[in-house]
Design goal:
The complex is a heterodimer of chains A (256) and B (195). In chain A, 47% of the residues lie in helices and 9% in strands. Chain A is mainly α and 256 residues long. Chain A folds into 2 domains: 139 residues, no CATH class; 47 residues, no CATH class. Chain B is globular. Classes of the chains: A mainly alpha (256), B mainly alpha (195). At the A-B interface, helix 1, helix 2 and helix 3 of A face helix 2, helix 3, helix 6, helix 7 and helix 9 of B.
Chain lengths: 256, 195
């Protein structure tokens, strides 16, 4: 159906027709588009700005707080490795048994042993335990050592402070006995600590060995036999059966 | 509000400024096209309140979709189409148009075709304000199809899709609407000439 002249004429006239707009319509429209089309760009920009602020905050946090966490973890790891015998018990007693408390031990709890029990020199003590003063924990008396607690204490200290930076390792790897001098082992913090410390750092004992030698293995009696003991021991007790006993390390038995 | 037309600021620049949220540009666009768009809403609305609602909602859509204006046609035509589409969406949501088209189809079935004859160039047209008054007297179904075809220049196919009717129904409705308007104009002219 083609548009005839009537259609075109009346259409043109009606398109030019005007009617008064309702009062207050522009204000309503303006308010509506103020939060919509007009400000859609601003809304996007606002969201972008908020995102930028969040990213900036994250960057600031990473910049200023992450290094501290790393350094604490490193210090803690260093402390553990340097002060294995003494701080082990201190940390064990300082950390809450639940494992959910503040992982940083208090200064007072750290390896400040009773003065009367000190066996190491102040220099040694300072050199050994000073780094650990930055670690805080609840003051607590050294408790009876528990191997499981000891293990968990180490694990907790590592996991709590170092997070992903210092992976969890078994305590046996931390306790590096060969690198710890015997004087450090004799620290008087507690008998428990001493026991824990001594065991791993005890110098490798020379295996006990008994030597029985005879120059003549054939012939007529009497034969001479030398009994000799080697190794670290306080006493020996040779038992020759019906031929008697001897407590001497080196026992020439003569003709038996 | 000033009466400045957007000649100083080209239509594309005006639309772009509106898209960017320039309040002055938005106000200028509203001043320029607001009154014309109000007539669009009146032609599709059932009453004044509905027309005002359609006007307000339509202009909000205009400003929200102004970025879609590509400058290929007159900005006024694009705004008119946007306003009309918004009104048609409203009608479609309320499923009002189809019912009215059907009812008017029956109501005016008795009309004789000889009453509706093509207008010729000699037909004297009332002025546009009076024409709007006559349009408002048309049954709503007629008015909608007539406005869409004659004023907004939709095709019958587009009208059929918009109103959910067949293209044939759209043509029939428009033909009857035009005859109805002719009668109104004829009576108007008779009254004006005293005949």
């Amino acid at each position: 159906m083609d548009r005839d002249i009537f259609d075109k004429e009346i259409g043109a006239r009606l398109r030019q027709a005007e009617a008064p707009v309702p009062e207050g319509a522009w204000e309503a429209i303006s308010n509506e588009i103020g939060g919509g089309a007009g400000s859609s760009g601003f809304g996007f920009m606002g969201a972008a700005a908020a995102g930028a602020v969040m990213l900036g905050s994250l960057a600031v946090y990473s910049t200023f707080f992450e290094p501290d966490r790393v350094s604490i973890a490193e210090k803690r790891t260093a402390d553990i490795e340097q002060t294995v015998p003494q701080p082990t018990a201190a940390e064990q007693s300082a950390l809450p048994s639940s494992g959910t408390g503040d992982p940083e031990p208090d200064e007072a709890a750290l390896p400040v042993a009773p003065d009367g029990e000190r066996e190491t020199t102040p220099t040694d003590r300072t050199a050994t335990f000073e780094p650990a003063k930055e670690v805080k924990a609840e003051p607590a008396e050294p408790t009876e050592p528990d191997e499981s607690n000891e293990h968990s204490s180490f694990a907790r200290a590592e996991n709590t402070d170092s997070n992903d930076i210092v992976p969890h390792r078994p305590s046996t790897e931390v306790l590096l006995p060969e690198s710890i001098p015997a004087t450090a082992v004799s620290s008087p913090a507690s008998e428990a600590a001493k026991q824990l410390a001594v065991a791993p750092v005890q110098a490798p004992a020379e295996p006990l060995r008994a030597s029985i030698r005879a120059e003549n293995l054939k012939g007529y009696a009497p034969f001479e036999i030398d009994f000799e003991a080697f190794g670290n021991f306080d006493e020996v007790d040779w038992d020759f059966g019906p031929y008697g006993q001897s407590a001497e390390v080196n026992t020439p038995c003569g003709s038996r | 509000m000033s009466k400045e037309k957007p000649q100083k600021l080209g239509e594309i620049q005006l639309a772009e400024a509106c898209r960017k949220g320039d309040k002055r540009a938005q106000a200028r666009l509203y001043e320029t096209y607001g009154k014309q768009m109000m007539t669009v809403c009146i032609r599709y609305a059932r009453d004044t309140d509905e027309a005002q609602d359609l006007f307000q909602d339509g202009f909000i859509k205009v400003f929200r979709k102004i970025g879609m204006y590509d400058g290929k046609g007159p900005l006024g035509a694009w705004i008119r189409r946007t306003i009309a589409n918004n009104a048609l969406d409203y009608l479609r949501k309320h499923k009002r148009e189809m019912q009215q088209v059907a009812s008017y189809k029956e109501a005016y079935m008795h009309e004789q075709d000889d009453v509706i004859h093509p207008f010729n160039e000699e037909v004297k047209m009332p002025d546009r304000d009076r024409l709007m008054e006559l349009i408002s007297k048309m049954p709503h179904g007629y008015r909608t199809v007539f406005s869409m075809y004659a004023v907004e220049e939709y095709s019958h196919k587009e009208i059929a899709e918009a109103l959910g009717i067949t293209e044939s129904t759209s043509k029939t409705q428009y033909r009857k609407a035009k005859g109805y308007l002719r009668k109104l104009i004829t009576n108007e002219l008779k009254e004006a000439t005293g005949g």
